[in-house]
Fold this sequence. Notes:
single chain; alpha/beta; Rossmann fold; three-stranded mixed β-sheet; 17% strand; globular
Amino acid sequence: MRNILITGGAGFIGSHVVRLFVNKYPDYHIINLDKLTYAGNLANLKDIENCPNYTFIKGDICDFEKVREIFKKYDITGVLHLAAESHVDRSIKDPFTFAQTNVLGTLSLLQAAREYWDGDYQGKKFYHISTDEVYGSLGFDGKLFTEENKYEPHSPYSASKASSDHFVRSFHDTFGLPVVITNCSNNYGPYQFPEKLIPLFINNIRHNKPLPVYGKGENVRDWLYVVDHARAIDLIFHKGKVADTYNIGGFNEWKNIDLIKVLIKVTDRLLGRPVGTSDHLITHVTDRAGHDLRYAIDSSKLKNELGWKPSLQFEEGIEQTVRWYLDNQEWLDNVTSGEYEKYYEKMYSNR
């Protein structure tokens, strides 16, 4: 029996990782620790919530005593750390929360792992999931972020993740903690909180609401289907080299404005609307402060060393993603209305 602690497992990427591990490894005990902030939703995991190898714990990674207790009670042998504040706009408005969760929360987990494992690192691993935003911004010269790029974070969010990456590496260098770090590109797919571009715009198209585009919409992002990301995490957790870093990208670079036009086309078609119906919803707004021009990940190392590559082309992934949100309108409405938060507040107030 391996006892794996997954933090942030009720969130977007975390829920896909939890589902994959629970279903693929019945001999593992998966402990999901999530604070259930606005982006955490247990409805994301309804299909596996009663599995015998799954345990959910509502808790804050910044609560060091709680984290220590979990390590001891469940004899944790591996950590997949996904819990984080992740929205750049929110980090601009409230950088303190991002520093608290992303930096001090990571430190809490690292220290608990170091204390509990106490130098016995055989079969142990602390896997920290990070972002490509720590590398800063690229120009349009075709260059890609590699694992050798220096860190140049430009937002409070990316600065907090860069800091947490450094803490993870320091615990290996200082204490020998077996760590691995991955930096991924923009994820998309089912269960993403609809403050992010793709689900937000699908929902806005559905309701004929404006589609706010920063500046001219020329910022470029590399898009990674979340299920492919979960597959990569599984592979790296089991076969990745200790103290190493791996970049995970989708090999799918799109300008924001071009991506939005694809979303409009697919969503209108699946809603049975004539082509171009929602084009008028595009609304250009003032660009975001410190908005990085381009992110693009080079995943060659992961492909060459561990054999991973994306399973879907972007157009296929977008089609599946739009279909999922339109087929799961109750989930989407509960999230956008805040009803899901009221349900969990009531549930946990009785405990």
